[in-house]
Design a protein that fits this description.
By secondary structure, this protein is mainly α. It contains 17 helices and 2 strands. It has a two-stranded antiparallel sheet. The longest helix has 29 residues, at 73-101. The two termini are 20 Å apart. The model has no long low-confidence stretch (mean pLDDT 82).
């Protein structure tokens, strides 16, 4: 493991501090960056995420993708957790904390908006960053691609109905441009680039050319992650500094949801005796969120300065540090996991 990966949590911590500091000191510059968006998708962040996931796409061997159907349990785990468990546990935690435990600290209207924002996060499984988490846990790239692709297809049809049911409204306006453009930017384009790159490398006739190429890209992938963290926290610096108490209140149930869903999926993966390189990305997909979509829907339904929008933004702030801690757990637990399968 290289220097970047070994101390990744340290670099991310420094990136968070740098992002908040730069966002506070240079608000106009970050406002300019925020304006570079289309259909609520920030183009600069999209490019950085593309840089992160491109190495993962190069590793995908389409001749092996067809074999995923021989191991459907990993896909089944992802779908059950994402669509039958996660949205409802998020709604339950939102109600428990903001209608019961935190009721004396938050007025009813704001509490309703916080709950709505949490629900929108819970119904939006990750599309892009999960490729990064999969790569960091040595996940099977072919299987990860299929898991994400099937999730995206289901999200197109299930996102609006589940949101409508949990929010108690029937006129959910899904920003289809955000959804479709995100899938194209984060999945389709880097996948096509990865396929073309792999073909060129294989034509050279060197058995290790793909592996060597990916190894050279890894530092750039980590730098892309760090730059993304700086931008995300820089763009939200004023919100973080202006409402620290409310952000903490929202973060508590989000943290419980994230860790809880991960360990539900992880324990289920052990019970199902999934291969470790399939179980790891399955749990990561089940745990992380498509925060771009959640933020866009929250703004369109409740407004830019609403409690729902703030809750989805806190989801962004919580996700990267928490997912890195789960990546570290998966990597530390690998030997124990394999022992449970009788393979170590």
């Amino acid at each position: 493991m290289g220097l970047f990966e070994r101390y990744l949590s340290v670099w991310v911590g420094l990136a968070i501090v740098a992002g908040v500091g730069l966002g506070y000191l240079l608000p106009q510059q970050f406002a300019l960056i925020a304006s570079f968006e289309y259909a609520s998708v920030n183009l600069l962040i999209a490019v950085l995420i593309w840089v992160m996931i491109y190495p993962m796409m190069v590793q995908i061997d389409f001749s092996a993708v067809k074999d995923v159907g021989k191991r459907p349990k990993g896909l089944l785990l992802t779908l059950v957790v994402n669509w039958l468990i996660k949205p409802f546990t998020m709604a339950l935690l939102g109600w428990l904390f903001f209608r019961v435990l935190f009721a004396s600290w938050v007025d009813p209207q704001t509490a309703s908006e916080y709950i709505a924002g949490m629900i929108l996060l819970g119904v939006a499984p990750c599309t892009a960053m999960v490729f990064v988490w999969s790569q960091l846990t040595r996940g099977n790239p072919n299987y990860t691609l299929v898991q994400v692709s099937v999730n995206d297809i289901i999200m197109v049809f299930a996102f609006a109905p589940i949101c409508a049911f949990l929010l108690g409204v029937s006129d959910i306006q899904v920003p289809w441009q955000t959804l479709l453009i995100s899938v194209v930017l984060y999945v389709v384009l880097p996948l096509v680039a990865g396929i073309m790159t792999r073909k060129v490398l294989n034509k050279k006739g060197h058995a290790l050319s793909v592996e060597a190429f990916v190894a050279r890209l890894k530092p750039w992938s980590i730098l892309g992650l760090l730059a993304t963290v700086v931008l995300l926290f820089g763009l939200q610096a004023n919100t973080i500094l202006a409402q620290p108490q409310n952000i903490l209140l929202i973060a508590i149930p989000l943290l419980l949801q994230t860790y809880g869903i991960f360990f539900i999926a992880y324990l289920a993966a052990k019970r199902m005796r999934l291969e470790q390189d399939v179980a790891a990305p399955a749990c990561m997909i089940a745990t992380s969120n498509f925060f771009e979509l959640a933020v866009a829907v929250a703004i369109s339904l409740f407004g830019l300065h609403s409690g729902a929008a703030l809750a989805t933004v806190v989801g962004v702030l919580v996700e990267v540090p928490v997912m890195l801690s789960l990546v570290a757990f998966v990597n530390r637990d690998k030997t124990n996991y394999l022992c449970g399968l009788g393979k170590a």
